[in-house]
Design goal:
42% of the residues lie in helices and 25% in strands. The chain is α+β, with helices and mostly antiparallel strands. The protein has 5 domains: 164 residues, 2-Layer Sandwich (Beta-Lactamase), CATH 3.30.450; 142 residues, Beta-Lactamase (2-Layer Sandwich); 102 residues, PAS domain (Beta-Lactamase, 2-Layer Sandwich); 130 residues, GAF domain (Beta-Lactamase, 2-Layer Sandwich), CATH 3.30.450; 144 residues, Heat Shock Protein 90 (2-Layer Sandwich), CATH 3.30.565. The longest helix has 54 residues.
């Protein structure tokens, strides 16, 4: 009866480790055979075995003196060695040990009697079997200690051989896999190249796919592309063992190819003899033993099946099936391109002439998506000849390539916005630049289907750049009006020009002599560029003076090739200048200034750009001339002011000399003070070049001659008043303050005067000026008509005579009115 085996025999971890060595049922190997021979000699026995215990048998990798290559577990003594992994199992007499007394090898041939087995243990402690020695006679003394030690060492050598064998096998397997992967990649690459070269020829595409798939999967004896035709699959293109069966048909219902097409899923057919999906009649006719199938589908619709087959079962693996899927994908792409070409060609007679004659560029593009389905590029499916002229590429270079392949630095908007057109179906109108081409385009993109869009466009670079120059001139005009120094104006103009023209440096310089020296003012530079501001001699930079002498622009597109600069090109290039323009500014027939523009790149300066520079140079010169005229006017105004003050001083001196003999001094002194008041008003007017004066400044200038300004309270909005109003206000306030010092509030130490003014809206807007004294003695109206001062007061502001005077116990209260238009500066 069978004896129970130790539980370790069925340990999944142990069995998995044994499978990992891939050693079972392999041929004899010298390394293991030599070990069992040494074991026989060491232990002086006739039999030695390398025994590996599986879940249902023991198999001998090497053996001496024992004929069978394996036994069942009921005949295994080595199975018991698994129970003591750390020691040699020794059974002196197998007939007396209850574990082995009934063993068929003990009770029958070859009647073994003695057993000793050293465990074959892995580094993780799992016992795979044993290196055992056997004798046909009992050995009560067992093995000597030296023999036991030697047997354990030989068992360790068996494990070393197993590890070495597994490492070599893994290496060879990896090399084989790498070779197969390389062969598969090469086959797929060549197939894709052949598909591209087929240019939509459907038959050539299918032949390329079948041939490439068979080359990539060596187990394949035949290959075929089966296309759906009604309720069947027709062998459209066949190769290898299936070449003779081209045109054969397999039913969609009742064949493995049909099952693949119906489910749109790959199928690994391991054994055609047992798979119920197989059409047995067809299988017998074509010699089908095993096969792999992959669907050829486009946008979810199955077009057919790519199949490889062999005559014997189990020829293919899941890896082969996955590889076949790649070739099915290539077939899909090829069939898609063929279908697209067929569709285009079918309509070509009607559309091609119109398409080719369009002056606008036209593109049909197809979205390119990543594994997650997100658009990251698009492919040119069709372009017209005008496209090539507008973008500067040969149309033949574009079809089949993506826009990122054609223009690697293309702006993201050229992809994302067209993807949105395909997603939403909404038309996109655009005006946008392709930076890498330096060109602007205007057009419309529209959806064709779920993956394609159409694009029609024109180049509008000239218009966009003209608009930019026009807006730049407007901006320059605004800037020049707001600036007050020549340096500010020239820098502002340089910055606008540099940015508008995409240059790297721009500036303005004054020319001395016969265009001998230029003093460049602080210039504008692009990031990373150095300034060239300062003094430069023209002769140091080549033969470049003659054009500027004649008042013509100096235009150089390439300093290295232009005959005027090529000898000194290194000097220009040392300043990061490869192209430049010097635009002269003329005055009285000679060049007095130059506007300069530099570019680090070689470029062709267009006539429109030169006209723009001429316009800028003229405007800057006008602005600078205005500033200098204003500076000159300021000098003249100061000179006039000085002379007028001298004149007023002379008038005062003459009056003093002339009126020296007048006994009554009061009128004389009043006259002198009035002259002084006029002088103060003149000083205030001079601050604005006699064009206007600040109302409060006029008040403070006149009244400060009479008393400290702390005796006056001012209340009202400050404003610019005309020269006539300033003189009138000065004389009026002078008379009011003089009377207050003599008779009114300013005659007392604590008296004050409140001066307030406001504007009143009405049919005619007015300025209302109030004079209110307090803290002084009671005042009375002058008797009779009064003197000259009283007359001035009654005349009011600017001679309107709108004066209201009230004399009471707290002081004078006066109010004067005048049209606001007569007071303020008139702006024309």
């Amino acid at each position: 009866m069978p004896y129970p085996v130790p539980p370790a025999v069925h340990d999944p971890a142990r069995l998995g480790a044994l499978d990992g060595y891939v050693i079972l049922d392999t041929p004899a190997e010298p390394g293991f055979d030599g070990i069992v021979q040494l074991a026989c000699q060491l232990c002086d026995v006739p039999v030695a075995l390398v025994s590996l215990v599986t879940e249902d048998r023991q198999w001998f990798k090497a053996r001496v003196g024992f004929a069978p290559s394996e036994t069942d577990l009921n005949s295994s003594v080595c199975a018991h060695a698994l129970a003591q992994p750390d020691a040699v199992l020794i059974v002196p007499d197998l007939t007396r040990d209850p574990r082995t007394a009934g063993n068929p090898l003990v009770t029958g041939e070859p009647f073994i009697r003695f057993y000793a087995g050293a465990p074959l243990r892995t580094e993780s402690g799992l016992v795979l079997g044993s290196l055992c020695v056997i004798d046909r006679e009992p050995r009560p003394e067992g093995l000597t200690p030296a023999q036991q030690t030697g047997l354990r060492l030989l068992a360790e050598q068996v494990m070393s051989q197993l590890e070495l064998r597994r490492a070599v096998t893994s290496r060879d397997t990896l090399r084989t896999a790498e070779g197969e992967a390389y062969r598969a990649r090469e086959a797929l690459r060549d197939t894709q190249a052949d598909i591209a070269a087929a240019q939509g020829d459907l038959d050539a595409i299918m032949h390329a796919v079948v041939a490439g798939a068979m080359r990539a999967v060596p187990a394949a004896e035949g290959g075929v592309v089966e296309l759906i035709d009604g309720d069947a699959l027709e062998y459209a293109v066949a190769g290898g063992s299936l070449a003779a069966h081209q045109g054969a048909r397999a039913q969609l219902n009742g064949s493995t190819s049909g099952a693949c097409a119906r489910t749109n899923a790959p199928i690994l057919l391991l054994d055609a003899r047992t798979d119920p999906r197989v059409d047995t009649e067809l299988a017998a006719r074509i010699g089908l033993g095993s096969a792999i199938h992959a669907p050829i589908a486009r946008v979810g619709q199955v077009l057919g099946v790519l199949k490889l087959q062999a005559a014997h079962p189990f020829a293919f693996s899941t890896a082969d099936l996955a590889l076949l899927g790649l070739f099915a994908g290539a077939a899909t792409a090829g069939l898609t391109e063929a279908a697209a070409r067929a569709e285009v060609h079918a309509k070509d007679a009607y559309w091609r002439g119109m398409f080719d004659r369009l002056s606008e560029g036209f593109v049909v593009g197809e979205m390119v998506r990543d594994a997650a389905g997100k658009v990251h590029d698009w492919r040119y499916i069709e372009v017209n000849p005008a496209w090539g002229e507008l973008v500067g590429f040969d149309p033949a270079q574009a079809v089949g390539r993506t826009v990122r392949e054609l223009i690697p630095t293309i702006e993201e908007a050229w992809i994302s916005e067209f993807a949105e057109v395909v997603e939403t179906g909404e038309v996109n109108a655009f005006t946008r630049q392709v930076g890498a081409l330096g060109r602007w385009y205007e057009g419309r993109a529209f959806r064709i289907d779920r993956e394609r869009f159409g694009l029609i466009f024109l180049e509008v670079t000239a218009r966009v750049e003209a608009d930019a120059r026009r807006l730049a001139l407007l901006a320059l005009g605004d800037r020049l009006r707001d600036l007050s120094t020549a340096a500010e104006m020239t820098y502002a103009a340089a910055e606008i020009v540099g940015r508008t023209l995409g240059a790297t440096r721009a500036g303005f310089g004054r020319v001395e002599g016969d265009v001998e020296v230029i003093d460049i003012e602080p210039d504008w530079t692009a990031p990373g560029q150095v300034s060239v501001a300062g003094r430069h001699r023209y002769d140091d930079y080549g033969d470049i003076r003659e054009h500027l002498r004649r008042g013509e622009p100096l235009v150089v597109d390439d300093v290295a090739s232009d005959p005027r600069t090529h000898s000194d090109a290194a000097i220009w290039q040392g300043l990061d200048i490869n192209a430049f323009v010097h635009m002269p500014v003329r005055e009285r027939g000679r060049t007095v200034a130059v506007f300069i523009v530099h570019d680090v790149q070689v470029r062709r300066w267009t006539a429109d750009e030169l006209a723009f520079l001429r316009n800028v140079a003229d405007r800057v010169e006008v602005g600078v001339a205005r500033v200098r005229a204003e500076e000159l006017q300021g000098v003249l105004n100061k000179e006039l002011a000085h002379r007028l003050k001298n004149t007023l001083s002379i008038v005062q001196s003459i009056a003093t000399q002339t009126l020296r003999g007048v006994a009554e001094r009061e009128p004389v002194e009043a006259f002198e003070r009035r002259v002084l008041a006029l002088s103060r008003a003149h000083d205030v007017l001079m601050q604005k070049s006699w064009t206007a004066a600040k109302l409060r400044a006029v008040m403070e200038g006149v009244l400060s001659m009479q008393a400290g300004l702390d005796r006056f309270a001012f209340d009202g909005p400050d404003m610019d008043i005309s020269p006539q109003a300033a003189l009138s206000l000065s004389l009026l306030l002078h008379e009011l303050a003089t009377n207050a010092l003599k008779y009114g509030a300013l005659s007392a130490e604590t008296g004050t005067v409140w001066i307030g003014w406001r504007t009143e809206d009405g049919k005619v807007p007015n300025l209302v000026l109030g004079w209110n004294e307090s803290g002084g003695p009671a005042v009375t109206a002058p008797s009779g008509r009064g003197g000259f001062g009283s007359k001035l007061i009654r005349m009011g502001l600017v001679g309107t005579r709108a004066a209201s005077l009230r004399y009471d116990s707290v002081g004078l209260h006066a109010e004067f009115r005048a049209p606001l238009a007569d007071i303020q500066v008139q702006v024309h």
